[in-house]
Design a protein that fits this description.
single chain; RNA-directed DNA polymerase; 6 strands; 2 domains; nucleotidyltransferase; 141 residues
């Protein structure tokens, strides 16, 4: 958030909301000791959607070339869902490197790791097999 220009006081308030959370596990009708999570937000946290939107700004920054559905239509770079996302980009080495950089920055900012082993890459029929393999290797998918 600081990299995006948010004031230190604001970032501090948000981080207090994130760090104040504690959990306890109930086992055999007995409450165990409370503990603090190591990082990130709990699922369903009211802050989660807002932080998600802030972090997703990198996808809208213009670094990745999207696809156009029609000639005069807007360029689509990403579609975000609750547990998935679809990213559109240029099938070039530079395009793949830009995408990888944005995803790594997202990991650092959000403390969420992207599992590239569970990720897939789809290509236009105009992309050669050699280029597909090169980009898939570069992305680690």
């Amino acid at each position: 958030m600081q990299k995006m220009g948010f004031a230190d006081a604001w970032v501090s308030l948000i981080m207090k909301c994130v760090k104040i959370v504690t959990y306890a596990v109930c086992m055999n009708n007995e409450m165990g000791e409370s503990f603090k999570p190591m990082q990130g937000l709990r699922q369903g946290d009211p802050l989660s959607p807002y932080l998600f939107l802030i972090y997703s700004e990198g996808l809208s920054s213009g670094t990745i070339k999207g696809v156009n559905v029609c000639r005069r239509g807007p360029s689509i770079t990403h579609l975000l869902f609750a547990n998935d996302c679809i990213l559109f980009g240029d099938a070039t080495k530079i395009g793949a490197q830009n995408l990888k950089t944005i995803l790594r920055e997202y990991e650092i900012c959000s403390s969420q790791c992207i599992n590239f082993e569970k990720s897939l890459a789809y290509f236009s029929s105009n992309v050669s097999k050699q280029r597909r393999e090169q980009i898939a290797t570069l992305l680690g998918v």
